[in-house]
Amino acid sequence: MDAKELKEMLGVRARDIIADGLRLTPNRSGMVKCPLHDDKNPSMSWFKDGLMWRCHACHGKIDIFDYYTKFEHMTFAEAREKLIEMLGVNTVFEKSNRVTKKEYALPKIEMRELSQEAIDLMAVRKLTKETLASWKVKESTWNGSKVYVYQYFHNGILKHVTYREVKPKGFKGGCEKNTEPILWGMWHVEDGKPLVITEGQPDAMAVWQSGYKNVVSVPSGASNMTWIDTCWDWLQGREIVVWADNDKPGIDFAEKVKQRLKDVKVILSDTLKDANEVLYRYGPEKVLEIIENKINEMPLGLKDVAHMEYKRSASAGIETGFYEYDSYVEDWKDGELTIIFGRNGEGKTTFVSQIISHCLEKKVKTFLYSGEMSDYKIQDWLYRQLVGNKKEHMLQVRTKYRIKDEIKPEVVKQIKQWHEGSLFLFDRSEGKVANDLDKFFDVMELAFNRFGVRLFIIDNLMSRLEEKAESLNSDQANFVQRCKDFVNNKDAHIVLVAHPNKEKREITNGQGNLEKTDISGSNNIPNKADNIIAVERNWGEPRDFDCIITSLKNRENGERKAFKYLFSPKTLRFYNNHTREEIKFGWEEPTRIEQLGIEVKEKTPWD
After folding, report:
1. Most distant CA pair in the chain: distance in Å?
2. Under CATH, what is the fold of the domain 3-89?
């Protein structure tokens, strides 16, 4: 939903909002004095077709966005959010970075009161029948099993439902397909008090029963962070305490929440797994003591190094999908900056697109800014790589000049469903980014915080800086430093795609001749990068390879290393003996769980 659509939805209401805000008093003819010039006689009237006030004397105009940005001193984004709030549109941030409506289904499930067996099983955890009733826990039959039903209400509406088998140890769990995954217990939270977020429903009830009422649970365990998006507005401005399970998934979960939300403190019980186990072993007083100590601990902005998690270098990085390169550098690390550069037409686009395809397969959420290719071209190139050389997915279309292979519409739909929520484009129609880097980094921050984007690819923005900057070297160096600052202490990696500042045509001894110092811009730029990759075409003989990818710099070791690839015009991919020409991506292999829409939760020792 763009600015034009929002204006059309607001319609003639804009006339009165602007008139009231600027104290414009229409005469009998509906004319007002123009506030854009020294208007002695009313010369401005409402222009219905353009949804704006327009002056017949100075030819100035004021629409709803002009009013908020010029007279109320809002940014364009703030003005758009103001209209969205005014119109009551339910919105999410999607691939195009536009505001679009997201539809969720409401749960439809037959429920019954809890059986004595279900009540007794919770009593073993020292959770009372009264607590279960206060949290609206019911019972049902799901996939042939007796299950607890956890109901997720917001503003009096049942939005989401999750299940948990009624069993002493070990369980299967799931949720209703296409319902909105919000936090459990939002209906009884008070504003102004710190909010405790637990990893499981029994933990939330344990905290509540112990006397601390401002508590909710995430819907689907430690691995699913979708609730941050769906509850984004509700979470804003709250002081948050995360009580995570004291295991590896719980620790990772707490770290992700800390990175994506503000004012977050974390509770990890020293020897016990979670809040329910603290209640079970030590009683409600201990649960309250732990929460109160955490709320009153050292202010945010300071931290005791002894309480920091020690991150080992062996943590999982981001694969590019180019086997030899990944093995050599041991994957791209979080918190680092990579520069990919090469001449026009020598393979940068193919190389980057192939990396994006691999990241989508590995479920690495990716952000892309492209200063050269249109959104349509990006999508078409990527989808053709994902389809490959499979004729069954193509159809022949006759154009004015020839017959072309096009991807079948049903295949495009499958691919979109497969990667939905994983690839985000920066919407260049939002303004000239090179003139507003603050806005650009704000959008990246939103993508990381709200949607968990981990890989940021910025293609050709430095060239736009070159066109705009009075001092090119200084401006580009500052931009690269801002990229480094952005990923510092984040589970994220930035890739800058750049051009060389020289045109060289020779290849010597099978090695590409581009050097680190050939990157366009300041000589300080290569020093700031953690990895530098040159992409070059083989123009010489023998023609036993088409492209050479050279690692000119990486943090693991300083040795220069080159990798040779052939190019397949059928699949639009680079390949060799290890990096395959043809690959089957996940969009072609829906699992049974995905088909059924069942979300299986992770088993933990306490459960």
Report:
1. 85
2. DNA Primase; Chain A (3.90.580)
* Cβ atoms 226, 196 nearer than 8 A: no
Nearest in space to 356 (alpha carbons), one of 387, 318, 388: 318
Query: One-letter amino acid identity for 392?
Result: E
Report whether 584 contacts 205 (CB < 8 A): no
Domain formed by 323-376+420-592, architecture: 3-Layer(aba) Sandwich (3.40)
Q: Taking 80 as the threshold, does the pLDDT of residue 289 lie above it?
A: yes
The token duo for 176 is 């209703």
Segment 230-273, tens digit of pLDDT: 999 899 889 999 999 988 889 989 988 988 887 789 998 777 88
Could you say which architecture CATH assigns to the domain 116-301? 3-Layer(aba) Sandwich (3.40)
Cβ within 8 Å of residue 584, ≥6 positions away = none
Q: What is the pLDDT of residues 310-320, one digit of tens each?
A: 666 555 789 99
Predicted TM-score of the model (pTM): 0.67
394: left (phi over 0), alpha (psi -120 to 50) or beta: beta
The residue type at 367? F
CA distance 268 to 222: 14
Three-state DSSP class for residue 395 = strand
